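pls design
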């Protein structure tokens, strides 16, 4: 009788969810989480789920890491909130730390927000203000948020934009070099050249470069399908930006904080952004985000022209400082690179001879598996089936891609060797058709 009551508790909460929660909030699994630890989420029935989604790349040091929890608890006893009425030391300490780990020393001025979308909004406001230019260029397949302005910048799939028109203007979308779906597949140099040619056409046909405030781009597209920009593209974009006085905004919301084997994905190319966005994994699970720029730009932005009531909350800042400490102490960048290389090798070997697996790609522990239908087109059906089978085996994975055709793997960076092996075993079973 007691066991039956426990089993029914999960469903009882799902029933309440169906009754009281706005259905626009989509969840990928009908699981009611009661607690989480390390690489696992536990539902109200006590079932353990190996989590390869980690809150969409948020819990990168694992769920409820002891150091992060301890830092947050300590801060709760000291100071919970100030807003902009006074300075607080955790805000200052975190901004200093972010400048120290930033990929370039010129990134030395930080603003803290609550979410990635707020980062984007703030960065665009900064770029428009200091350049005096109206236009923004984003890239096809991008995801930058769900506020009305960031929705206008998001092109990963129509579903995020449909029926929200009219969206903000002065946004022009350039071609992202998606090598696998390019006519030049197998020749990255031609893929890059094609994208740059399209950008040049945009300058000649839609917007003069002297009217463009900024480019905004993900070095590895997240919702768009875990697609990395081919080598050379970001460097070329940096050169074009510099030539025309355009600011380069690098969106590291999903790819930052060790996910790709470097603290930030842009480090793989050695490109210097004018503004860089950070969120998701920054605070180990608490809401926080940041955009960082050059002081010479932010000094031109008068005080009060941008702000945030809750951005840089003391508890979130304390958790962020502890999270970064964990990443550095546990050498999680190196761990992500090593394990990511091993997973890519194993998955690519598994994919040999299977035409329904179009491509296994990734860098560090940001790995995407793209599925094809019998005609070689993107297959949402197969990706959904694989995700469903993984869940049946008590493992959570997410899909992404313009057609939902990609399984994305974003485990905790400190996942154990045993759980990493278990994850691959489950995934291979799920991908066997």
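designed seq:
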């Amino acid at each position: 009788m007691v066991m039956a009551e426990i089993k029914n508790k999960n469903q009882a909460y799902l029933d309440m969810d169906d009754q009281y929660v706005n259905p626009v909030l989509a969840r990928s699994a009908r699981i009611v989480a009661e607690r989480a630890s390390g690489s696992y989420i536990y539902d109200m029935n006590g079932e353990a789920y190996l989590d390869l989604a980690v809150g969409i790349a948020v819990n990168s040091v694992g769920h409820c890491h002891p150091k992060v929890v301890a830092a947050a608890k300590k801060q709760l006893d000291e100071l919970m909130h100030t807003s902009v009425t006074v300075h607080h030391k955790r805000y200052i300490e975190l901004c200093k730390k972010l400048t120290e780990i930033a990929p370039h020393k010129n990134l030395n001025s930080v603003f803290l927000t609550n979410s990635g979308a707020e980062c984007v909004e703030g960065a665009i406001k900064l770029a428009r203000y200091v350049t005096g230019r109206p236009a923004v260029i984003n890239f096809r397949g991008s995801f930058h948020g769900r506020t009305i302005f960031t929705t206008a910048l998001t092109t990963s799939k129509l579903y995020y934009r449909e029926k929200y028109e009219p969206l903000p203007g002065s946004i022009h979308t350039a071609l992202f070099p998606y090598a696998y779906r390019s006519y030049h597949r197998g020749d990255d140099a031609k893929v890059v050249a094609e994208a740059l040619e399209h950008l040049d056409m945009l300058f000649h046909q839609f917007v003069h470069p002297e009217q463009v405030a900024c480019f905004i781009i993900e070095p590895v597209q997240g919702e768009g399908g875990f697609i990395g920009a081919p080598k050379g593209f970001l460097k070329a974009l940096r050169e074009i930006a510099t030539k025309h006085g355009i600011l380069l905004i690098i969106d590291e919301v999903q790819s930052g904080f060790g996910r790709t084997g470097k603290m930030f994905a842009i480090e793989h190319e050695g490109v210097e952004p004018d503004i860089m966005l950070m969120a998701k994994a920054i605070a180990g699970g608490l809401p926080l985000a940041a955009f960082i720029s050059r002081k010479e730009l932010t000094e031109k932005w008068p005080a009060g022209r941008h702000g945030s009531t809750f951005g840089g909350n003391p508890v979130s800042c304390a958790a962020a400082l502890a999270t970064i400490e964990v990443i550095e102490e546990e050498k999680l960048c190196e761990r992500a690179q090593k394990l990511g290389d091993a997973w890519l090798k194993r998955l690519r070997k598994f994919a040999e001879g299977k035409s329904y697996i179009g491509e296994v790609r990734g860098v560090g522990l940001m790995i995407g598996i793209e599925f094809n239908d019998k005609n070689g087109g993107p297959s949402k059906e197969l990706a959904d089936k694989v995700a469903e089978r993984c869940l049946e085996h008590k493992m959570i994975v997410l899909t992404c891609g313009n057609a939902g055709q990609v399984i994305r793997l974003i485990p905790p960076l400190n996942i154990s060797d045993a759980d990493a092996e278990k994850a691959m075993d489950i995934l291979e079973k799920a991908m066997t058709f």
